[in-house]
Amino acid sequence: MSDGAFVLVVLVPVVVAVLSAVTASANGVLDARTNGAQLRTGFAVPFQETARLLRQQRRTLPGADSLLWRISSAGIGIAAVLKVLVIPLGGFTFADLPVGVVWFNAMDVLLWALWWLLGWGANSSWSLIGGYRFLSQALAYEIPLMFALTAPAIGAGSLRLLTVQTAQTHVWFVVWMPVAFLVFAASVVAFASWGPFQTALGADITGGVLLELSGIDRLLVTGGRYAVLVAGAGFSVPLFFGGGAGPILPAGVWVVLKTCLVLAGLLTVRRLFPTVRPDRLAEIAWVIVVPLTLLQLAVVAVIVGVNGGAL
Amino acid sequence: MITAILFWVLTALAVAGGIAVFVVNSMARATYALAVSFVAVGAMIVMLHLDYIGVITILMMLMEMAVMAVFMVMFMGMNPALMPMDMTHNKRRSVILAVLVFVVLAAAIVFIPWPNRTGSPADDLTKSLGDAIMGSKMLVMLTISPVLFATIIAALVLANPKGRYDRYGDALDRRDVDGHPDPDDPIPGGLG
């Protein structure tokens, strides 16, 4: 990392925060449209909510494990930033890890701990149930996700994201690894506790892990959730969408543009599917999705073997 | 210089995390203190340029601790898992054992004539690691993994006093008069 990059690294959390705010606004606008409210009010929702939560006083139940609780509410956004750090912007990358794909996986497992601790720390039954729901959901999505992540790695013959990106010069991985991409996208939705996989924050348990959160902690978690969506969408760009490849515009801009397109997809998913109970998800994920993903891997391996490399 | 400082900070974190496991009075804190300790060790492995093993250590340990916390709370029997409790037992013997093991290991570090390095590390360490594990040792891995998995399942079955196995014996594929499996699927839904 050169000195310039060392300074630029400070910008990463800012960019993640801006993209999260944009996503939250877009989500607010879509909500407003559904409810027949003015689109302008929907757009302002995240900013009003931020202002409200910044002024709100923290409340804590007696017996809450404040240390673990605060660590976990701050940690979700940090995990997202740590994911974004290894995403290449064209030929440039902040942290050129030789095992970037595994790094993403490790940070996603960090979210297991954080969501459960959020539920644990509050010392409230509903929150704790939310935490447990997340973990059981995690058991369902993690195995397919791990296999799905190996597809681009096999295609490129490397775990380094720069290499994965260059292997897509001719054909994007999403074209011949559609199942892997769908599993990846579903897992992003799941580890952000979003859309059909939001039972940890479910209305049936009065908000679950969010129930007792207030003030800055609640802001960090709700914002962190969008940041995790941004990080997941951003990560799909070097894995499946050819990284910064694109005409005219610089690579960095293309990465952001593609990220926004994937984010739009994730926002849509929330409105298309009903909530899935984690116990039901486990059976579907292990009996149907895991074999499908393995089949995808076999196809990728055969193509790579016959072709002597990526398409 | 910065590398050395970082290494020592991580060392301190790993040891402090290990100590905290026994000092704190909550299951969750003990579990995640252990997780911090392991993550610090994983980061140190990354600093030794063993990126894959380091990151995979962080990944596995975080996942393991997240699941372990659930199991500890679940199998604690009475309910102290949710209350403040002492994380130590059998203190005197544990202390003697721990000190002995530490002395033996520390003495080993000092007194063993360590061989000098022969050869040089491969260019792509992840690839050579994969070759080492999956090449000549594939048969061993294929044998060990089902045995390990079976051990986990068996241990769970034995540890769970009110589980399906205890209630129904090993005839889990029998059917009721209505043709449905008996016992019924405890979690209906999913695939039915």
Describe the structure.
Chain B: One of its GO terms (molecular function) is quinone binding. Chain B: It catalyses: a quinone + NADH + 5 H(+)(in) = a quinol + NAD(+) + 4 H(+)(out). Chain B: This is NADH-quinone oxidoreductase subunit J. Chain B: Its EC number is 7.1.1.-. The complex is a heterodimer of chains A (311) and B (192). With 311 residues, chain A is mainly alpha-helical. Helix content of chain A is 72%, strand content 0%. Chain A contains twelve helices and no strands. In chain A, helix 2 runs parallel beside helix 11, helix 9 runs antiparallel to helix 12 (278-307) and helix 10 packs across helix 11. Chain B has two domains: 1-88; 123-184, no CATH class. Chain B is built from seven helices and no strands. In chain B, helix 1 (2-23) packs antiparallel against helix 2 (27-47) and helix 2 (27-47) runs antiparallel to helix 3 (51-75). The longest helix of chain B has 25 residues, at 51-75. Chain A binds chain B through residues 65, 67-68, 97-99, 102-103, 105-106, 109-110, 112-113, 116-117, 120-121, 132, 135, 138, 142, 159, 277, 279-284, 287-288, and chain B through 26, 28-29, 32, 35, 51-52, 55-56, 58-59, 62-63, 65-67, 69-70, 124, 126, 187, 189-191.
Q: Would you identify the regions of chain A where 5 or more consecutive residues have pLDDT less than 50? A: none
Largest sheet geometry of chain B: none
Helical content of chain B (DSSP H or I, runs of 4+): 55-70%
Number of DSSP-assigned strands of chain A: 0
Record field, number of beta strands of chain B: 0
Instruction: List the uncertain runs of chain B.
Output: none
How many helical stretches of chain A? 12
How many domains of chain B? The number is 2
